Automatic annotation (TrEMBL), chains A, B:
Protein name: AcrR family transcriptional regulator
The species this protein was found in: Saccharopolyspora gloriosae
InterPro entries assigned to the protein according to its UniProt record, in alphabetical order: ArpA-like, Homeodomain-like_sf, HTH-type_TetR-like_transc_reg, HTH_TetR, Tet_transcr_reg_TetR-rel_C_sf
DNA-binding region: 31-50
One matching Pfam family: TetR_N
UniProt GO molecular function: DNA-binding transcription factor activity; transcription cis-regulatory region binding
Keyword field contains RNA-binding: no
Superkingdom per UniProt: Bacteria
Ranges for domain HTH tetR-type: 8-68
UniProt KW keywords: DNA-binding, Transcription, Transcription regulation
NCBIfam families hit by this protein: ScbR_bind_reg
Length: 203, 203
């Protein structure tokens, strides 16, 4: 294996092992030795790539930010209405958090920063505000309040995910069914039959 | 001050100081010295009342369990319909968690036990199941799924409470408005004008 390629493999092994340990017991409870053991990397090799455990955490945070930026870019440039954009975006974020331990560990680290938490909520608020302006929400719905509830629910599902038998993706379906059923216009629900909320509701 | 009364005052000072510190930085990050400093109690006096920091935590957990048992007893014996019972019960729990640091610290400790988390959800599920059986929920609503969403939202609001400008009680109002609006029958909403969700909704 050429040297540069080998270095990449080692770096990747460190990042994945750190993510798995942070995901399992949290950043604070993970000693460097656990990362070394899980990655099979020597201390010397570790320090060649990262000055500290904090530096691995910072790399995880940067990586997840890149993943989200790409997903945001993809869904907001597809020409969907803002409410559908919010639904698809949240569904993809939830799926990735469920299946990708590296992104999940990075996201957990990033969410320790209140500004990151607030920024996600602002992005969603923007989509729901725009949904209201485009007449996709019932007139009595306050998009800011609705986003607060939606966002709290998504955070709660993640917190509870360890103790619940059903997966986050299924729970997100339930959330949308309930919340879209309460905020979207009958027109929007009729026009979006693929959305779980679009089950017929007696009036 | 008679000796027994003085002992009670000291014990109470320890419990309150511990609750305030646990609430501020968490149980793990609170050294015994911080509890002594905040309570103004000597180490000797502390150990007269509690064998360890863990024992104070256990006392806080027992205390919050007693508070919830009383509240549960009060609301379920009032003859309200099960959906109104759920609304009133949750509102009181949220208010107490917001204003009483001793109960809040105890609840936070108790929620580290997955069984406690699951038990709260079971209690709420029971009320919503019974609401469905009594025809208070729209026929297409799955009470178990609706409780999962509701409970996740309540947990999320607590997790986010530090970073949000509005109080938990106001947010609970928003949650009920949105969720009851999505699950309760039009009849129930009409008959419960004091519930925030009962704002008129265009059909």
């Amino acid at each position: 294996m050429p040297q540069q390629r080998r270095a990449q493999v080692t770096r990747r092994a460190i990042v994945i092992a750190a993510a798995e340990e942070f995901d399992r017991v949290g950043f604070d409870a993970t000693p460097l030795s656990a990362i070394l053991r899980r990655s099979g990397v020597t201390k010397g090799a570790f320090y060649f790539h990262f000055p500290s455990k904090d530096a691995v955490a910072a790399a995880l945070v940067r990586f997840q930010a890149q993943v989200w930026a790409k997903i945001w870019q993809r869904w907001t440039s597809r020409g969907l209405d803002p409410l559908s954009t919010a639904v698809e975006l949240v569904d993809e974020v939830v799926r990735i958090l469920e299946h990708d331990v590296v992104v999940r560990a990075g996201a957990r680290l990033a969410m320790r920063d209140q500004d990151t938490v607030a920024r996600w909520e602002q992005l969603l608020t923007g989509l729901l505000r725009s949904s209201a302006e485009n007449g996709l929400l019932r007139p009595e719905v306050d998009p800011v309040a609705a986003t607060r509830v939606l966002y709290a629910t998504l955070v709660g599902v993640r917190v509870l995910s360890a103790s619940r038998a059903i997966g986050a993706a299924q729970q997100t379906g339930e959330i949308w069914r309930l919340i879209l059923g309460g905020i979207a216009t009958a027109d929007w629900l009729r026009n979006n039959p693929s959305v779980p909320a679009a089950a017929p509701r007696p009036s």
